Amino acid sequence: MRAFLGTDKLYLDMKGMKIFKDSIMIGLGIISAAFGLKGFLLSSHFIDGGVTGISMLVADLSAIPISILIFVINVPFLWLGYKKLGLYFAIKSTIAIGLLSVSLVFINFPDVTHDKLLTAVFGGVFIGTGSGLAIRGGAVLDGTEIAAVLVSKKTQLLKVSDFILLLNVLIFGLAAFFLGVEPAMYSILTYMAAAKMIDFILNGIEQYSGITVISLHSEAIRRAITVTLGRGVTIYQGKSGYGKDGHINDPRDIVFTVATRLEIPLLKQTILRIDPKAFIVQQSIDDTTGGLLKRKGLH
């Protein structure tokens, strides 16, 4: 009984710590996004992509405050998020977007610069940082990605990235028509800066890549990766499918490992030192769970 109680207490402590960390992430994300909007973009009439961009465009063309538009336009996406991703996600995202709207009303941010290039780049940087931090906290500040995921599952014709690209082409096309070509071009720059920051916040400098090595010297390569570099590997068997007679032959072990992009040059150098003819395939990995992803302490 005590063991069970101890386990429950540990679980509650861990859950409480996670909620606290998520709240900090979301709070910092809200402040960063609000600063990007009020400190840079709104005064220059540049817009971002997604729901935020739609809200900014409508606010420029009407008398409706952007603080109201950001929340109202996100409501349908939040409902979709509730139906498909769960109540907890929907509550966190609703609170986050609501607080972003409130921040735009009650927090006074200075208008940092009137330089158009700096405004476009750093406005995007702060908005992207805010969105990335919110996503890491388990919420969203923009409902576009919720819709993109659902549309890609329904149609099977559009990937998430394709849907977002098409939506933003439409948004920036409307911006060029209503606001002018130059503001639209600066807005595209803003969106690119925001997208890069979201990618950096979510993946960081330790973005993982999968490395597959096909070589006749697989055992030596395995030892070098596990012992010298301190990485975990997976071995699976394969056969060469290349041959003049058309027969599958030459059985060999295939080595697979996961490394950060900072470790990849050393990893490739080590493999090619053992076998200059090794066939190395590198692929991006969005996320990893478990396994030996960190270096062991080598003595």
UniProtKB/TrEMBL annotation:
Topology within the bilayer: Multi-pass membrane protein
Listed GO CC annotations: plasma membrane
Transmembrane domains' residue ranges: 24-47, 53-73, 85-107, 119-139, 160-178
Main location class: membrane
InterPro entries assigned to the protein according to its UniProt record, in alphabetical order: DUF2179, N-reg_PII/ATP_PRibTrfase_C, UPF0750_membrane, YitT
Domain DUF2179: 231-290
CDD domains given in the database record: YitT_C
Protein's cellular compartments: Cell membrane
Protein name, UniProt field: Uncharacterized membrane-anchored protein YitT, contains DUF161 and DUF2179 domains
Record organism: Mucilaginibacter pineti
Lineage: Bacteria, Pseudomonadati, Bacteroidota, Sphingobacteriia, Sphingobacteriales
